[in-house]
Amino acid sequence: KNDDAARALCARFFPGLIDRTRGVRVDTERKPSPQLLTETMAHLGCAAEETVMVGDSEVDLAAAAAAGIGCIAVTWGCRSAAELERAGATCRVSDCAELLRLLTNSESVL
To answer: How does pLDDT run across 83-98, given as a tens digit for each residue?
Structure first.
């Protein structure tokens, strides 16, 4: 998603829960390049072990793997649970409540 759309979606659906949102701009490589993820981790001062991507496609899974971080695959996006599993998803959620529980849990989710 472009940068404006990504920010608007996070502000609407996850207010106060996401530290930084960054979408594609003219100076950005598109996924599966890990550029967006590694730049965001550097900006926040986060290590890969402290970072998780939430995604809904095999491209998201590939970008997370390229950045060395885990990925929570959501099944309400552009791919089904079966497609995400075939693409290598090891952590899948089927609704926002489950996602919120994972993201706010102090235990490792992946």
So the answer is: 999 999 999 999 989 9
Q: Over the range 48-70, which residues count as b (16 or more CB within 10 Å of their CB) and which as e?
A: eeebbbbbbbbbbbbbbeebebb
Q: Would you mind telling me the total number of residues written for the chain in this entry?
A: 110
Q: How far apart are CA 26 and CA 109, in angstroms?
A: 33
Question: What three-state secondary structure class fits 2?
Answer: strand
Which of these, 102, 4, 107, lies nearest to 53 by C-alpha position?
A: 102
The kind and range of the H/E element at 93 are strand 92-93
pLDDT digits (tens, 9 = 90+) for 40-61: 999 999 999 989 999 999 999 9
Q: Which residues contact 20 (CB under 8 A, 6 or more apart)?
A: 40, 43, 44
Output the pLDDT for position 21. 85
pTM score of the predicted model: 0.83
